[in-house]
Structure of SpoIIE family protein phosphatase:
Amino acid sequence: MAYQIEYAYTCHMGRVRANNEDNFWCCGELLPAENHGTQGIRSETISGNRTPALAVFDGMGGESCGEMAAFVASREFGKYYSANKRTLRDVPEDFIQGVCKSMNKAVCGYSEENHIQSMGTTLAMTLFTPESMFVCNLGDSRIYFSDGEHFRQVSTDHVLGRNLLGKAPLTQYLGVPEEQQILEPSIQEIEHKEGYRYLMCSDGVTDMLSDGEIADILAREIPLADIVELLLERALQKGGRDNVTIVLCEVQKQDSGRRLKTWLKGLKDKNER
């Protein structure tokens, strides 16, 4: 199936935090290290032939360490993606392992250079190839699947048990030196189907909303940007205790006219660079 990906995304500081430790990478877009989130909801459509990639990063660490970890990881993701798009297309599993190692090395390198003992970031990403798509995560940033009738979490929570007094410690994240722990990203391959939706989000969403609430919103037949806006509004209404990052994408059938327009736009963008 010739397909395209429509995606909508936003990043918000929440109602409590004084800084934003979240970031994202959406087909080339990311936030600077110091930011106050996005201005509203953004949305785009891209051809599946261009191997779209989308990711959410939730930084951890005191003072400015969290936002730097998320920024360094998102920037490194962009560098690796640009240099290895052919690998993503031909051997996606190798790309995923390689980009995770590259991001981890970048975060660890920044930490060592700046004498920071504890910093890191979670990761949730979706990668599309002409034949199928892959979801991958490290930590507790989640990825959900919805087709209107079925809903499930397709990421793995890398946490150590449950902590009734606070957040459970993470067992996997970007920023762990290789000599201390082996990086083991959770990876799943899923076939393309028209109407499949994938939600990537930081715990600013999942700590505020139940899976049932998220499932109800994802199943609604409204524009993706409206779904993202509704998820953000609900998370803020429930307290907004953490930064909120939401990236939602949908697999859509691509008609020939749309493919020609997308190809011409891609050619124009390439010539302008």
